[in-house]
Structure formats: structure tokens, C-alpha cells
Specification:
Structural class of chain B: alpha+beta
Helix content of chain A: 25-40%
Strand content of chain B: 25-35%
Largest sheet of chain A: 7 strands, mixed
Strand order of the largest sheet of chain A: 13-14-10-9-8-15-16
Shape of chain A: globular
Strand order of the largest sheet of chain B: 7-9-6-10-8-11-12
Number of strands of chain A: 16
Helix content of chain B: 25-40%
Largest interface: A-B, 23 and 19 residues
Oligomer: heterodimer
Distance between the termini of chain A: 86 Å
Order of helices and strands of chain B: EEHEHEEEHHEHEHEHEEE
Number of helices of chain A: 16
Strand content of chain A: 15-25%
Shape of chain B: globular
């Protein structure tokens, strides 16, 4: 009997197993496959890894105990820029792999892989750029698996060089060697390039004639800017057209845009069909006293939002920073403007709500450029702070849902009063705004959701929203190839005009 | 009906007087038609008529005919006054936008924005600390002084609703010329500037009732300013820009820090210019 048991366990240890692993999350364009390759070799396991539309797929063969060690080491040792949202594995019969390889990518499957934003040049690459002896000396497009462009250059998922705007650049021998060497930090760095084989800078005049190239172009541009003139910068991404034809919920969150009803839109949810669109939900409107002035001064938007809550008694709320920033005379005039509707258009803008919060918690009362208050609010946010939310309410109006932000502001004021750090308040506010999108998406009941507008330049808002929407089973579209701000809106307008012209024909 | 510095009676007279003056005409006679809401207190009507008489005297014009209708209570907004006038063109000048020549100087007769701010402050009880008085005034005297002195006037425009900006844009479009304006040369009183600041208005879009823009031959600009400075209404006159050929139909304005932007026309109430 004892003998038998030992034999069985011996058998378990010795028989190779095959494991199939699917990893979802931000696992493309971050050196994940090279990492898996090294890990497999380290544990003397055979099989393959490839990018799939779902993320990364792995098949790996070897002793069960080493397979399990492999599995356990993925999360703690994964590349710093990656993030794993889900990992599933199953055991299969072995097929007798002899080596571990990185395979060409899989084109099938729903496109759900998270694509990372562009990442600022890493210290290693910076060192190379400023090293006169390095072959990438002063080469602005230097990158590796830890940094460089991601979504800007992607034309299709999965993330592989042929599906990026880099496909037109054939790597030179030296770059190719780096790309193929598992021990090099440019192993499978999709945008890998050098001055010999990659893109280069050109400075053009207004007629499109080349003034200078390479490093001289950069220096030339600096001269032009210092001379008070304008340089239009075209990045490596280029613009491509976004193809969505089936019904979807469009989330259009922006700073300000004229709406169909004379108010300033910018916090809208549209149900978009082939026949047109209807407003499915929007933020409870509040006024912008002084119009454009209230966009430059978030404290005005804050005053107006608080007026929606407190009415006249706002005059006594000197404990709130934006209120205290005005003189008594100014406050009186501003409240008169709100009451009497003088140059105080209504807005439903989400971007202005970011301004309101930025002002209330004392981050910024007046801005130098559009979006500054919201950006500063985002930058002070500590993503690890909290998953907590503030309250918000939905109100049904005719055909649309009105999102009432007042409970959120009240909660926020309570937090402020009880000394909750602003980094945490900012996180809770961001979480709330993101959760509003998820909640509306669930109510609207459209499978597809598209995120658009300047607000989605906010990395935390966008990523949290994407993750939660995907978790909730939505199919998601957001800006990977087109900037979400005015660039994207201009493009949208151009597409709408082309569409109308085609219909007229 | 009444705001600091003017009332409806004075406005009714000066509106028509200024319309005549902007054609280079010397205003002579006016008609006035009243639409009165039933129940309007007689003392208000009397006060309005008194101020019309004062304004007519100041503008050196005779009120020669008129008519009165009374409408049911609730059918009229207190009082409506409609005036029409006749003047005489005594000099051989063709004053209209098509006479404007490249290089002409653009003269502004005084500080801008007072009337609009006075109205909004009085009507809405905004609670400004100081009282801003309307600039409401007849412009015929100024114009006659310029014409009599032989200034080569090409075009005149009184700045009313829509302010300086709307007047200039309209002229540039009609004359198919470009106009370059230097923002820092435009006089705006400090209290008006402060009120505009808090209200979110740009003074160049705020209404006036006693200000005009004059397009004159550039060689006459200096002399025109000297003449204007001698009149009570023209003491704050300045050259604010010139006519150029580069961008026909476009008015550009250079900010105090040197940023040049296109001045556009706004319609109705001032709305924020976004996007």
C-alpha cells in the first residue's frame, strides 16, 4: 500500500502537464511577453506566449510543481508598467513542446486588451539620448519596453509593430538585434527605432517646404517659438478615422460646448443610433456667472454650483474658499447676476464640475489655461487613497435622466470640514464621476459605450471608468488614436459633415 | 424708464438726432408718437415729456408733430416712444462706408460702455458701489464742428447696441476693408471696466448712446482730434486704429500684450464666446 502511494506521487511529479493561461489587463506594450519568456526559461518550461485581443495568451508545459511556481511568480515579478485585471488557467494534456517561443499575435477574439497610454521617456533611454557616444545621441524617438508611445501609434489591436504607425519603418540590423534579444530591454519593444531606421524630425514652413531636419529641426523650432511665432506639432501618431455604426451610449464630457437648447453642454450622455442621437442623461444644470469669465475663474462656477445648494445663505458661507475669495460687494453683484439671469448661461458641463471641486477644496480659483484647475485636481490625487464614493442622485425628466451632483458636493464639504486630505477628496470625487458613467451605462442598457471629450484626458477618470465598464460587461470605445479634446471633436464634426454629404447624394 | 444719466425721453430724442448726424445732416425737426399703457401715472408722462423738451433744446431741434395712442392695461410696457426726424445736408460730403479709403484713421469720440452698464445696473439693481451714468448725448454738434472745419469725413457711425465692436464689424463688411484696432487706445472708465470685469462683459460690446466712430482721411486725424477735444462731448476722443487692405471685411484688435485677435459681431445679449 505504502509502495503504491509513493509510486503514484512519483508519477504526479514526473508527468509533464500543459497549462493554458489567459491574462487580461494592461499587458501589451509593456514588455510582458519578454518577461514571460524569461520566466519560462528560468523555470526550464517550454511552450509559447503571444499577444491576443484579450490580452496575453500563454501555453506552458512542464512539471506541475514548476508550472505552479511559474503561475505564482507572474503577479509579483510582472513588468512595472503592466497591470493584471484577470488571470485564468486550465490544465491540458501535454503536446511535447521543446522550447519556449514568442509567437505571432492572435487576431481573433473581442478586443478587450487595455492599451496603456504613452509613457514618458525612462531614465535609461534619457541617459542614452544625452550620451554623445551612444548611437541614439539626441534622437528624440528613443524608447524601450519601459517607455515610449503606445496608444498614439496603435492602428489595431493586438499591439504589434505591423499594427502601429511604425509599420512603415523597417528596423536596421542593430535595432532588430535588440528587438530579438530576450535579454535586451528593447526585446519586442514595438516602436524600437534609432536615427538610422526610425522616424525623424522635420521643420516645415507654412508652404510645407522642409526648413531643417533631425536635431537642427528641433533647434529651429525652439528659435521660432522664442521669436514669438507658432509651431504646429504633428506627432508620430497621425489621425485616423473612428468606425462605429451600431447603437451605442456616447459619453461626451467636455469643458464647454453650445447645446441645442441654448445652454452650454459638456456633461452629456447620448444614445447614438444610425438615425441620429438623443440626450439620454445630463448633469443638473448650474449657471456660469460672467459667461466666459466663469471658465477662466473656477471660483465663479463654484459660487454658482453652491448657490444651487444654499441659495442666498451663501453670503454667510465665508468658510468655503471660493466664497471667501470675493469681496462682499462682488458677492452681492454675482448673486444678483445669478438671480436675475444676467450673463449667466446654464451649463451641464462635467469639465466645469471638475473646476467647481478644484475651487471648493482650494486648489485653484483662477486659471491661466483651459482645463488647468481640473488637471491640478487630477495631479494631486493619490490613486491608492481610496475606492470610496460620494453620493449622487438620478432624477427622471421627460426622456432623460438628470444627474444631481448636489449630494456629492455636500458630502465633499463635510469631508473638507472634518479635515480629510484633499488628495483623498480628489480621489473620492474622481471615483464618483467615474461611477456616474457606469451607473448611467447600466440604466441606458446599450451594449456599447464610447467615451469622448476633453475630460477623458484625465488618466485616472478614464482608466477607472474603462475598467469598471468592462467588468460590468460593456463593450468599450475610447480615444486610442484620436485626441479626446478639441482635436477629436473637430474630427467628429468633419465626419458628421462627410456623412451628411453622403446622405444627400 | 429711467437710469442714472438718461431716461426714455432723452433716448428717444438723441436716437433720432444721432441717426441724422451720422449721415452728416443737421437735424431740424422731429415727430414723436406715444403708445401709453392704460393707468400710466400722469406725472411719469409729464417727466418724460419734460426731458424730451430738454434734450430737444440741447440738440437744437424742434419737436413739431406727434400722436398718442392708449392701449389696455397689460398690453403695453408702460410707455413706447417712436420718433422720426428731418435734417439738412449742407455740405458736399458723401458720408457712408463705401467712401472709406485704405489708410483712413478711425477716431473714437470718447470712453465707451457707460450706457450699457448704467442700464443693466439700474434695471437689475445689481448693487454696484458707485453709480455709473449713461453717456446718452446728441452727436450732431460734434459732427457739425468737424464738417464746418473742413475735415474730410468718410464715414460716421454712432455706437449703440452691440457696442464699438458691432459697429466696426458692420462697417468693415459693408466697405470690404480691413480695420486694425489697438485695444489700449480705447478709453474705458475705471468703474465701467470694473463692472465689465465682474459681469464678464467686454467693453467693446457694451452699448453706448452718445459715442461715435469717425473714419477720416489720415492727414486730417490730428486736426480732427484738436477740434473734438474743444467740445464737451469729444474731450476723450482718440485715434484707435486705421483702415488697411490686407484682410477685407475683418476687424482685428491688438491686446495690450500684443495678441491680435479677430473682432467678431455678437447678436442679442452678450453671450460667452466659447469654442
Amino acid at each position: 500500500m505504502r509502495e503504491q502511494v509513493r509510486n503514484m506521487s512519483a508519477e504526479v511529479i514526473e508527468t509533464p502537464k500543459r497549462m493554458r493561461i489567459v491574462i487580461r489587463g494592461a499587458v501589451q506594450g509593456v514588455g510582458f511577453r519578454p518577461f514571460i519568456y524569461r520566466l519560462a526559461n528560468d523555470l526550464r518550461l517550454s511552450g509559447w506566449v503571444k499577444n491576443s485581443s484579450n490580452g496575453v495568451a500563454i501555453e506552458i508545459e512542464g512539471e506541475k510543481e514548476r508550472l505552479e511556481r511559474f503561475l505564482l511568480r507572474i503577479e509579483p515579478e510582472k513588468p512595472p508598467r503592466s497591470s493584471i485585471q484577470g488571470l485564468e488557467y486550465s490544465y491540458l494534456d501535454p503536446v511535447g513542446y521543446t522550447a519556449f517561443e514568442i509567437l505571432a499575435s492572435d487576431q481573433s477574439g473581442a478586443k478587450m486588451a487595455l492599451v496603456l497610454p504613452d509613457i514618458a521617456t525612462c531614465p535609461d533611454c534619457l541617459t542614452e539620448i544625452f550620451d554623445p557616444d551612444n548611437r541614439r545621441y539626441l534622437y528624440p524617438f528613443t524608447n524601450c519596453t519601459n517607455c515610449g508611445p503606445r496608444y498614439t501609434i496603435i492602428t489595431a489591436l493586438p499591439y504589434d509593430r505591423p499594427d502601429t504607425t511604425m509599420s512603415g519603418f523597417t528596423m536596421c540590423k542593430k535595432c532588430r538585434a535588440e528587438y530579438d534579444n530576450p535579454d535586451n530591454r528593447r526585446f519586442h519593444a514595438q516602436p524600437n527605432a534609432c536615427p538610422d531606421c526610425g522616424p525623424h524630425l522635420e521643420l516645415w514652413d507654412a508652404e510645407g517646404k522642409i526648413i531643417s531636419k533631425h536635431h537642427e529641426a528641433l533647434l529651429g523650432a525652439v528659435d521660432v517659438i522664442c521669436g514669438g511665432r507658432i509651431v504646429a506639432v504633428k506627432g508620430i501618431g497621425g489621425f485616423h478615422l473612428n468606425e462605429l455604426s451600431s447603437p451605442l451610449l456616447g459619453v461626451a464630457w467636455d469643458g464647454a460646448g453650445y447645446g441645442l437648447d441654448g445652454t452650454i453642454w459638456g456633461g452629456e450622455f447620448f444614445r447614438v443610433t444610425e438615425g441620429g442621437f438623443e440626450r439620454a442623461a445630463y448633469f443638473r444644470p448650474f449657471r456660469l456667472p460672467g459667461g466666459e469669465k466663469a471658465i477662466k475663474e473656477p471660483r465663479r462656477a463654484a459660487l454658482a454650483a453652491l448657490y444651487e445648494i444654499f441659495g442666498d445663505s451663501l453670503l454667510d458661507r465665508r468658510d468655503i474658499e471660493p466664497i471667501d475669495s470675493f469681496s462682499g460687494a462682488e458677492l452681492k453683484v454675482l448673486i444678483n447676476m445669478l438671480e436675475k439671469s444676467i450673463n449667466s448661461p446654464y451649463t451641464t458641463s462635467a469639465g466645469r464640475l471638475f473646476d467647481v471641486v478644484s475651487s471648493i477644496i482650494g486648489i485653484r480659483q483662477a486659471t491661466h489655461f483651459e482645463g488647468q484647475a481640473a488637471m491640478e485636481l487630477e495631479f494631486l490625487l493619490d490613486p491608492n487613497q481610496t475606492t470610496e464614493l460620494y453620493r449622487f442622485e438620478f432624477e427622471k425628466a421627460e426622456s432623460a435622466i438628470i444627474v444631481d451632483w448636489r449630494p456629492m458636493i455636500l458630502d465633499l464639504l463635510d469631508d473638507l470640514k472634518s479635515g480629510v486630505p484633499v488628495a483623498r477628496i480628489s480621489a473620492k470625487f474622481h471615483n464618483t464621476m467615474s461611477e456616474i458613467i457606469v451607473a448611467i451605462a447600466q440604466l441606458a442598457n446599450e451594449k456599447k459605450v464610447a467615451l469622448s471629450g476633453g475630460c477623458f484626458q484625465n488618466k485616472y477618470l478614464t482608466e477607472r471608468t474603462i475598467v469598471h465598464l468592462i467588468k460590468a460587461g460593456f463593450q468599450l470605445y475610447w480615444h486610442q488614436r484620436i485626441p479626446p479634446n478639441d482635436g477629436g471633436i473637430s474630427l467628429g464634426q468633419a465626419v458628421a459633415v462627410i456623412d451628411l454629404k453622403n446622405r444627400a447624394r | 424708464l429711467r437710469e442714472p444719466g438718461s431716461d426714455i425721453g432723452e433716448l428717444a430724442i438723441n436716437g433720432t438726432v444721432n441717426d441724422l448726424a451720422m449721415c452728416g445732416a443737421r437735424p431740424l425737426y422731429l415727430s414723436a408718437a406715444f403708445i401709453l399703457e392704460e393707468g400710466l401715472p400722469m406725472e411719469i408722462l409729464w417727466r418724460v415729456i419734460q426731458s424730451m423738451q430738454d434734450a430737444a433744446r440741447k440738440a437744437n431741434i424742434q419737436l413739431v408733430t406727434g400722436d398718442t395712442k392708449v392701449v389696455d392695461k397689460g398690453k403695453g410696457d408702460g410707455i413706447f416712444i417712436n420718433t422720426a426726424g428731418i435734417g439738412i445736408i449742407e455740405y458736399n460730403l458723401n458720408i457712408n462706408p463705401l467712401s472709406i479709403r485704405i489708410g483712413d484713421a478711425v477716431i473714437l469720440s470718447g470712453d465707451i460702455g457707460r450706457h450699457g452698464i448704467a442700464i443693466i445696473a439700474a434695471r437689475e439693481g445689481l448693487g454696484f458701489e458707485t453709480t455709473i451714468e449713461s453717456d446718452c448725448a446728441p452727436l450732431a454738434g460734434l459732427v457739425m464742428e468737424l464738417i464746418r472745419s473742413g475735415i474730410e469725413i468718410h464715414c460716421l457711425r454712432d455706437l449703440t447696441r452691440g457696442g464699438l465692436a458691432s459697429a466696426l464689424v458692420e462697417i468693415a463688411e459693408t466697405a470690404k476693408v480691413g480695420i486694425e484696432i489697438d485695444e489700449k487706445s480705447i478709453p474705458v472708465r475705471e468703474d465701467v471696466r470694473g463692472a465689465c470685469e465682474i459681469l464678464g462683459f467686454d467693453p467693446i460690446y457694451v452699448a453706448n448712446e452718445g459715442r461715435m466712430a469717425a473714419f477720416v482721411n489720415s492727414s486730417d486725424a490730428g486736426r480732427a482730434l484738436e477740434i473734438l477735444h474743444l467740445t464737451p462731448l469729444g474731450q476723450g476722443a482718440t485715434v484707435i486704429g486705421k483702415v488697411e487692405s490686407k484682410q477685407p471685411g475683418i476687424v482685428t484688435i491688438k491686446s495690450p500684450i500684443g495678441v491680435i485677435r479677430i473682432m467678431d459681431m455678437i447678436s442679442g445679449e452678450q453671450l460667452p464666446r466659447i469654442c
